[in-house]
Structures are given as structure tokens and as C-alpha cells.
Input
Amino acid sequence: IIQKFIIVSLLPPSPLSVQYGIVLDAGSSRTTVYLYQWPAEKENNTGVVSQTTKCLVKGPGISEMNDDSWKYLKTCMDDITKHVPPSQHSSTPIFLGATAGMRLLHIKNEEASNTILQDIQKYLRSLPFNFQNASIISGQEEGLYGWITVNYLMGNFLEKNMWNAWVHPHGAKTVGSLDLGGASTQIAFTAPDDATGEDLIRVSLYGYEYNVYTHSFLCYGKNEAEKKVLAELVKRSTDWSRVNHPCYPADYSITMAASEIFDSECTKKSTPASYSPAKNITFFGGSDPVRCKDLVKRIFDFKSCQGKENCSFEGVYQPPVSGEFMAYAGFYYTAWALDVKGSNTLKQFNTAMLSFCSKPWATLKKNYEITEKHLKSYCYSANYVHTILADGYKFNDDNWENLNFQKEVNQTSIAWSLGYMLAQSNMIPAEAKLLKLPIPNSAFAGLLFVFSALTIITLMFLIITLVRFCF
Output
């Protein structure tokens, strides 16, 4: 468990005008390659990082790598390589961080996960870049890196003032981070200074300390949680050839092998006695919003929080949420499907969810250009998002509008990968070598104007007095 997270600045100044960094976000359902760039300023190592490009690797995540996956990964890396000047290949750091998919595989088969990482490391070392690291990151680290990304992009750590000097924004407040992946979900936000516990980390950035609460719920990512929902339905069904699913749209059906549901560390405890991996299970949609909500709530353990103050679910301690939050990744895509991205009220979210979940399959296909794989599951996703935010994290009518469902900030994707690179590259100093002003830029500018005006008036008075005295 991480108790103290100090980031120090070690990067030497570079004569180059731009530097680059590459991060492979090896998620449970896919791998995304990000290329970042930043000005190589001589004055300090706090150049603002922006996203140059990104490449989505086709196929599954690295926990299910096959020959095609390797081919698609190499195609992406070839594309990324073209965006970096050849003269800077050897100085461009490259990192890979594997998240919940590999965390689950490591639990299930440690030898297999180690072999995959070794193969990945061997491949990345063969590239012309400066290989740094390829490892499985913890859920707590993933949450913290996401929080760093959000606040870095929002300019909450530092900004340039009117004299082009880096300063800590006067009165800046941090923004909470809500990340929803395929196999896990993370929450991170600044907690009161007196809050303590294993999920709180003291973070030093630019000379300021933050008490950050961050927790990751493994198996509560969107895809793994959906498997838990399917397992719940199968467990209560006597006829596997016709299992009614209230979250799937009416007039829609899908048949899948039992292994697609139960061959997971997240559902193995729910495996029925009659389980056979190859046995088919057919689900029929019902477009029933009320029953869907009840079904999704059943996969959350809220009972362990009964009688406890400041508890989300599964008995996990959580300080009360406060301030603004950025909800991204799976949270954003669900809000986008409901047409409630950005900020909205809880009532608006509920209305959109009810409307979407009431539509039959034919209407959904007509109204949305979304693949069947995702379209069939957005009602479930909407109920999942509502349940974890409202019942789990305790967002309500009063503070739901503090949630901002976004995909990017200033054309840079919101993802833990940026915070990871900043931390791994030591680009965020713990101690600040910055110009610190005791007052905001606007107030300082106002005082400067008043002082200048008084100086001019005084000089004019002296000149007039001198002229009168002489003549």
C-alpha cells in the first residue's frame, strides 16, 4: 500500500524545442498508445504536456494476446514512430502500464502474466525509443495517476502568469477523478487533512501537499460488472435456453457460451453447480427500466456499509465527496449514449436513462450508429453508472451537477497514462522552483496600474512645480 507519493524533478534541461514521451495504456479490453509532447524549456522542467496523437490497438487487451494482437500492436507503433523525429527516437521515453485485466490474470495465473510482460518488454526494447518500464500498476496508482492527469490538464497545479512565469494558481481547487475501465473503476479526490486510512496518500506537487483519497474496485469495471449481472440472472434461472434480461432491449436476443460469463475471477464464486463451459445460454431483452435497476443494484455489496458512516460499498471507507469531479472513460461514453455528457442534473440523467431503457431494439438501431456489442448494453451501463455514483459514492440532487462527463481537455484525452508518464519521468517536482505571488495576477496587475498612475501623476506634479519655480 502506498503511504507517501513524492515526485521529484531529475530531468536535465534540453536544447531541443520539443520533447516526446510514449505511454501504452494496456487496459483489460484494449491497448491505447499515447504520444505526448512538451516544450523543452531551459528555465525549468514544467513545460505543459499535450497529446500529439494516439493509436487504438485492435483486438483484446494484452492479457489475451494472440498473433493478430501482436500484428495490430506493431502497426500502431509504426504509426507512432512516424510522428517522432528520427533524431529524437533514442531520447524519447516509452512506458507500458498494465491495469485491471492483467491484475486479474496475475491472480488467476501468475506465470502467464509474467510471460506476457516479459514478451512485451522484449518487444518494446527492440524499438528505437528509450525503454523505461513495463509493469502491472496497482489500482491505487491507477486512481492517483488519473487524478494527477485531470488536475494537470485543468491547470490546477500551475499556470503561466502575464510575465510568462510559472505560478501556482491563486486559490486553485483540485478536481476529483472518476475513471471507469473494463475490469475496474477508480475514484480519487482531495480529502480533508485530518482524514486517514489506507486509501489516503500524501502527495507533494510543486511545493504543495495534497491529501488524496483514492480507491480502486477490482471486478467493478463496466465489462466485468456486466458479467456479474449476467451471472446473477443465470443463477436465478431454471431454463438456460431462455433467460430474461430486463436491461437488454425488447426484441433483442443473444446466445453465448457459459465460459464467456463464468471464466473470470470476478464471477467464479457465482458459478452454478451445473456449469459446463461450452453450454450455451440465451438472453432475451425486456426493456424494463425498473427491474433493470433492481438487478444492477444486486451486484453491489451495500449491506457491509449499513451502520457505518462514510462508506461506499463492500465496506470500503470513503470521505464525503466534495467539489467538482471529472467523470471520464466508461462514465463519459455512457453519458454520451444518453445525451447527457458534460454537466447535468440527477433528474436529467434519470429521465434520459428511463427513456433509453424503455426503447425496443429496432428503435435503438434506428436512432444510434453504435455497434451491437455496445448498444445492447448501454441501458445496463446507465444503471450501473447511476448506482455507483448515487448509491455508492453518494452523489445526490444537491451535488450531481458537480459531475462533469468529459472525454478530453484541450484535445488531450483524459486518461491515467498522462499522470503516469509525468510521475515516471519525474516531470512534476515535489518542491517548487516557481515564482509565488501572495495575490492573484489580476489583483497584482490592478495594483501595478494604480502604482504606475500615481507615479505618473507625481512626476507631472514635480515637473509643473519645477517649471513654476524656474519661471
Q: What stands out?
A: Confidence is low (pLDDT under 50) at residues 1-14, 42-46, 434-439.
